[in-house]
Amino acid sequence: MNETETSIGKIISLQKIVDPRGNLSLAEAMKDIPFNISRVYWTYDVPSGACRGGHAHKHCREFIIAVSGSFTVTLDDGRGKQSFLLNHPYQGLLVNTDIWRSLDDFSSGAVCLVLAEDPFDEGDYIRDYKEFLNYISIKKK
Q1: Domains and CATH numbers, the chain
Q2: Per-residue pLDDT for 1 more than 70?
Q3: FRET pair for 57, CA 20 to 30 Å: which of 50, 116, 119, 133?
C-alpha cells in the first residue's frame, strides 16, 4: 500500500497484481482501507457536465475509486479546497468526516465506486454548503 496524504485528503494506492490475462487490484477493510466497509455503491452513466456529491458526512468515512475512466473529486474542509484526479483503478481517495465533496469532469464511461464505513443514514448527511460551513465553525469552537 502506497499513500499520498495532503491536509485535506489521502490517495491510497492498492495492491496491483499484474497478469497478462488482466490485472487485479484488491482492498481489504482495516488493512488497505482504515475502516470496516458497511456499504458499497457506484455511479455510472453520468451525463457530460453533471456534478455528483455536493455533501459532507458527520460520521461516515468513504473511499472513492475510479474503477473505469476518470473524474475529479474536490474536497473542502471549510478553510480550503483541493482537487484530486482519479483515473487509476488501483488507487482511491480516502475522504474523512466533516469534508465537503463534489465529483465532476466525468469521462465517458467513467464508473465511480465508493466504499462507505456506515450504512445509509440521511441524518449523517449535510447537503447545504452554508449549513456545512456553520456546522464546521461550531464544531471547531
Answers
A1: 2-15+36-139 (2.60.120.10)
A2: no
A3: 50
